[in-house]
Design brief:
0% strand, 434 Repressor (Amino-terminal Domain), mainly alpha
Length: 301
């Protein structure tokens, strides 16, 4: 058992949570394609256990300075001995620390224990699906419910109960018709007709609700990720730039430069005359934003 974490460790936990919510490390695609570096894995493992560098030094025999350098993003030289020692201490594989695998808690699980079919193994190895997203879906708290509902429908577990219920509704309706002779539009008859359960529609709706809830939760969890679509569409940004240019007092050429600089995050007023001429020349080559060549250009002092 490690000692009670100090304030520094609490701050580090906050940093990790912040990094998880809005991580900077990204590959092309979605958040679920995130790959932790060796340095990040080492720091995450230490902070998860509530250990300071001093406490980790006492328990592993590796100096505090070395441990701190191992967690530094710019440090690349980690000794083989330290990797083995830290892997054994944290109960993970050396391959996990080195970023060669993603399974931290089950590094040596036998494939046969997973009960996967050849087709499933082939699909997971093919690279055709996002396995990290699939793992998030499967690990969701409602995934077991989704599979249970799907199994009930696929195996026809509830078919007999549905047929029995529909038969009971028909019996009640027939008794009412015989005794009361209600009209075709009688409310009671309409209710009994509506009480009939269409098994296909019923279970499709249930399964759809299950998967929709899972996907919404995952989407919400990654809403702040850098690879997620921004709330402000690109067209809104362009519209804002054009409105700013329209308010700008200057020539058409200068207004085009304003739009161009706004899109690139350049502070237009700080442009030198030479920089202004270069941008005008570049924009003049555009087929979408042709610069009139017959009019005199404004001279900048």
């Amino acid at each position: 058992m490690g000692a009670k974490p100090k304030n520094s460790t609490i701050v580090e936990k906050h940093d990790i949570m912040k990094r998880m919510k809005n991580p900077k490390r990204r590959k092309v695609g979605t958040v679920v394609n995130v790959a932790l570096t060796i340095q990040e894995r080492l720091k995450d493992l230490r902070v998860e256990r509530g250990l300071t560098l001093e406490q980790l030094e006492q328990q592993t025999g590796i100096s505090k300075s070395a441990l701190g350098s191992y967690e530094n993003a710019d440090y690349k030289d980690i000794t083989h001995t330290s990797i083995v020692t830290l892997a054994k201490f944290y109960g993970v594989s050396a391959d996990y620390l080195l970023g060669l695998m993603e399974t931290k808690n089950h590094p040596n699980t036998d494939l046969s224990e997973l009960h996967l079919s050849d087709e499933m193994i082939g699909l997971l190895k093919s690279g055709k699906i996002n396995t990290r997203l699939w793992c998030e879906i499967a690990a969701h708290r409602d995934f077991v419910k989704l599979l249970a509902d799907a199994e009930i429908y696929v195996d026809g577990v509830a078919s007999m109960q549905v047929r029995n219920l529909n038969a009971w509704v028909d019996t009640v309706r027939n008794e009412i018709v015989e005794k009361c002779r209600p009209g075709e539009n009688d409310p009671t008859i309409s209710v009994l007709k509506a009480a009939h359960i269409e098994e296909d529609i019923y279970f499709r709706n249930i399964v759809n609700e299950d998967i929709d809830g899972i996907i919404r939760d995952i989407r919400e969890a990654h809403k702040e990720d850098s690879t997620s679509a921004p709330d402000t569409a690109a067209v809104d940004e362009i519209k804002s730039s054009l409105e700013e240019a329209a308010r700008f007092h200057g020539s058409d050429e200068e207004k085009r430069v304003v739009v161009f600089c706004r899109q690139l995050g350049i502070d237009y007023p700080k442009l030198t005359p030479e920089e202004f001429r270069v941008i005008i020349k570049v924009l003049g080559k555009s087929k979408l934003l042709p610069i009139p060549r017959k009019r005199n250009r404004r001279k900048r002092k």
